[in-house]
Design brief:
CATH topology of the largest domain: Heat Shock Protein 90
Structural class: alpha/beta
GO cellular component, one term: membrane
Keywords: Kinase, Membrane, Phosphoprotein, Transferase, Transmembrane, Transmembrane helix
GO molecular function: phosphorelay sensor kinase activity
Low-confidence stretches: 1-13, 348-355, 393-401
Pfam families: HATPase_c, Response_reg
Strand content: 15-25%
Number of helices: 11
Order of helices and strands: EEHEHEHEHEHEEHEHEEHEEHHEEH
CATH architecture of the largest domain: 2-Layer Sandwich
Number of strands: 15
Protein name: histidine kinase
């Protein structure tokens, strides 16, 4: 193999190189010298050498340009193997005898994007390489997006299962308690039964709390179902207002008695959100839940959870971005815990079923949208989690998500 341009370690895994295959060494040298000024050119002297190179570095090859007539296995055979093993690579065929049979074999077996005739025309070949490279990089991006979607879906479903299991476990606990307190009425009372109360209003509290949690679990499931339906509708809404998202969480979250009064919102700086509603709904519910748990752990005189919309810069000198802030007046976060949040699972509530995956999940969702998560806290002074959303230009670039 001959190379005319060094490949740095940062390029590893990204498709960018043009692999030229020809059994004539002079043809390889001429091609590398002529086109190496614009492209990363690698060469191989035959089918076996090319396949060996691809086995080692196939992820870096974007375009294959192969001669047809070579001793042993010909170029069409190579194209067929590459099509089967390396679907991301754009395939071009060079032939001095581009007759009908060769063309048909190249199309049917190798699905070539273009057939070039010898001697190569420099301008036409450069344009063919540019087009093939652009197409290969688009396919690589599409493949990466598909892989990202699949990974996000797996992670989301796992996290959703946890979020649904928690309220359903509470419902099950209340129902078990009521079943244990169930008592049959004395004979002659018309078959009536009753549930004993430890204190007045006890049973009604359990029924209302169970209903709130069941409604919340249903809202999570319904959100995902609706998103799946929207994916197949051409008239599905393409954007979501931040105020609508906050309103949905405010109306559907299963607050404990009196906790809804802790929530206050400032929605004046409204904006359009990128991404899917289901993920962002789950992110915001997670932040509200964390804030409420912090307040319950050390109830202050004036418990508050504030959700605000606005604009802020992620760092000095950077442009402002649309943000959603969730703040609480709880006990704050210890410094050694704060520096690990959003990067690794950290929980101070393992005994209560906490997994520490909440903020990690939020960070991954926001990163997939081109945004970020920032956590600020001082012990004894509450905590603020800020979701930074990409600017409209970045959002348009990420529309395939």
């Amino acid at each position: 193999m001959n190379t005319v341009q060094a490949v740095s370690s940062t390029d590893a895994g990204s498709a960018h190189a043009v692999l030229m295959v020809d059994d004539e060494p002079q043809a390889c040298k001429w091609f590398a010298r002529l086109y190496g000024d614009e492209f990363v050119v690698w060469t191989a002297g035959g089918v076996d050498e090319a396949l060996a190179l691809l086995a080692a570095r196939g992820g870096q090859v974007a375009v294959l340009l192969t001669d047809y007539s070579m001793p042993g296995r010909n170029g069409v055979e190579l194209l067929g193997e590459v099509r089967r093993l390396y679907g991301h690579i754009a395939r071009l065929l060079v032939s001095a005898c581009a007759d009908k049979d060769v063309a048909m074999a190249a199309v049917n077996q190798g699905q070539v994007e273009k057939i070039l005739e010898k001697p190569l025309d420099e301008a036409a070949t450069r344009q063919a390489l540019r087009d093939a490279l652009a197409g290969a990089q688009r396919r690589a991006l599409d493949r990466a997006l598909i892989d990202q979607r699949a990974a996000t879906l797996r992670e989301t479903l796992g996290f959703l299962a946890h979020e649904v299991t928690t309220p359903l476990a509470t419902v099950r606990g209340y129902l078990t308690a009521m079943r244990e307190r169930h008592r049959d009425a004395p004979e002659g009372d018309g078959g009536m039964a009753f549930i004993e109360q430890n204190k007045p209003g006890d049973v009604l509290f359990m029924l209302e709390a169970a209903q709130r949690r069941a409604d919340y679990a249903q809202s999570l499931v319904s959100t995902f179902v609706q998103t799946a339906r929207d994916a197949y509708r051409s008239d599905a809404p393409v954007s979501l207002r931040a105020s609508d998202l906050v309103g949905a969480v405010r109306d559907e979250y299963p607050f404990e008695a009196g906790e809804a009064g802790w929530l206050c919102c400032d929605l004046s700086a409204d904006f359009n959100l990128p991404g899917r509603r289901d993920l962002l709904y789950l992110v915001l519910c997670t932040l509200v839940k964390n804030a409420l748990l912090a307040l319950r752990s050390a109830l202050p005189d004036d418990p508050r959870v504030h959700i605000g919309l606005g604009r802020a810069a992620l760092a000095p000198g950077l442009p402002e971005q649309a943000v959603i802030r969730v703040s609480d007046t709880g006990p704050g976060i210890a410094p050694h815990v704060l520096q690990r949040l959003t990067h690794e699972p950290v929980t101070t509530r393992a005994e209560a079923g906490g997994s520490g995956m909440g903020l990690v999940f939020c960070r991954r969702v926001m990163n997939s949208l081109g945004g970020a998560v920032h956590v600020q806290s001082q012990p004894g002074q509450g905590a603020t989690v800020t979701l930074f959303f990409p600017c409209p230009e970045q959002t348009r670039a990420l529309e395939p998500l």
